């Protein structure tokens, strides 16, 4: 018995030391990118139900000098689509709709709505014009509240990019339509539906939708440019514009609650998740990009909205979660995520050392980031 207890103690210490070592290496990696002005935000990394790291890097607000921490609140951009997809699946579970339903069932006047299914909206295979490709709108209108009719007018009468189901093209418009369908079916606002089905049950109390009116000391400022030489603040996209395609804000902690709910089948059943994680075209399912690491399925989504870049991904088989939320528009976040995965899976990775003048500058505001993992 004594030998067994000793063996258990040794195993515990080995696992503890390994986890501590992983956390230290991840922190070193993130600090290196932060020092090069290539990451500014908060990060959470977890494995097997244990949080290895949850902390902030860089500035929550550069003007005041307030630093990011684990409580910082960020806009998520297109990661919102996972929540939209989840509500659709919950409504299907309740027999209130089916992913095989035609768009015309809910919007009879929608052009060619009888040829587009909810599943095609979920998987970006409907061919609906992506309103964020409208440069004039994105330049001049995104900060102003819009009605459903005003938003739909941006795309409903545009020709389809292709016959529904035959190809793939990322469409925020399609996900906006999913939000409008949710409102029709639930007879509640999209925000209320997400709260009722997800945020409230999971006690995601730091998550919401209207970032413009959010009054919280933890609210971050988004930047197009943020480095040692210059800053350029980004405008806040009105939630009626980004809506069910990109309006949600959250924290690393709340998003980990969501990840654990998926791991434990709390909100979505295993079969519903399998449906969502099954790629239709371009390695994309229902609001999830799908690829693999070490021969195991990895699912997640990237997000981008002016001043913010995010990536959240999971390896369900290993209960691994990586959440990176940045309040600076820097494109290296996918590379950072891959470096963290390399640490977790004992693969080669590089810690950046050379000092570079990096400007986190987008040529134009954009809220569409593809679902493919990078």
TrEMBL record:
Pfam families per UniProt: Beta-lactamase (PF00144)
GO MF assignments: hydrolase activity
Subcellular location: Membrane
Any single Gene Ontology cellular-component annotation: membrane
Signal sequence coordinates: 1-19
Cross-referenced InterPro entries: AmpC-like, Beta-lactam-related, Beta-lactam/transpept-like
Domain of life: Bacteria
Major place of residence: membrane
Ranges where the Beta-lactamase-related domain occurs: 42-331
Keywords, comma-separated and alphabetical: Hydrolase, Membrane, Signal
This protein's name: Class A beta-lactamase-related serine hydrolase
């Amino acid at each position: 018995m004594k030998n067994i207890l000793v063996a258990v103690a040794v195993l515990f210490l080995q696992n503890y030391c390994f986890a501590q070592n992983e956390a230290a290496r991840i922190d070193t990696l993130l600090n290196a990118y932060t020092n090069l002005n290539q990451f500014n935000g908060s990060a959470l990394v977890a494995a097997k139900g244990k949080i290895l790291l949850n902390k902030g890097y860089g500035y929550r607000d550069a003007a005041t000098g307030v630093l990011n921490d684990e409580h910082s609140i960020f806009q998520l951009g297109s990661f919102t689509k996972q929540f939209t997809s989840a509500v659709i699946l919950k409504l299907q579970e309740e027999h209130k709709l089916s992913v095989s339903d035609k768009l015309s069932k809910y919007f009879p006047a929608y052009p060619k709505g009888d040829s587009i299914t909810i599943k095609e909206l979920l998987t970006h295979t409907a061919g609906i014009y992506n309103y964020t490709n409208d440069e004039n709108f994105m330049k001049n209108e995104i900060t102003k509240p819009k009605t459903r009719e005003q938003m739909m007018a941006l795309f409903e009468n545009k020709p389809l990019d292709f016959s529904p189901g035959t190809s793939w093209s990322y469409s925020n418009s399609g996900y906006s339509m999913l939000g409008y369908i949710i409102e029709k079916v639930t007879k509640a606002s999209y925000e209320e539906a997400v709260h009722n089905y997800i945020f409230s049950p999971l006690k995601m109390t730091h998550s919401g939708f209207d970032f413009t009116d959010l009054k919280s000391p933890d609210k971050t400022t988004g930047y197009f440019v943020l480095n040692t030489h210059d800053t350029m603040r980004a405008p806040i996209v009105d939630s009626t514009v980004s809506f069910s395609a990109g309006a949600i804000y959250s924290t690393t902690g709340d998003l980990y609650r969501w990840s654990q709910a998926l791991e434990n089948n709390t909100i979505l059943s295993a079969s519903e998740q399998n449906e969502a994680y099954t790629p239709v075209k371009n390695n994309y399912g229902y609001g999830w990009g799908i690829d693999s690491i070490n021969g195991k399925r990895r699912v997640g989504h990237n997000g981008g909205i002016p001043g913010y870049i995010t990536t959240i991904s999971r390896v369900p088989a290993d209960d691994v979660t990586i959440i990176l939320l940045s309040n600076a528009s820097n494109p290296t976040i996918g590379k950072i995520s891959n470096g963290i995965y390399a640490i977790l899976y004992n693969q080669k990775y590089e810690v950046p050392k050379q000092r570079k003048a990096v400007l986190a500058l987008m040529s134009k505001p954009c809220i569409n980031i593809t679902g493919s993992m990078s």
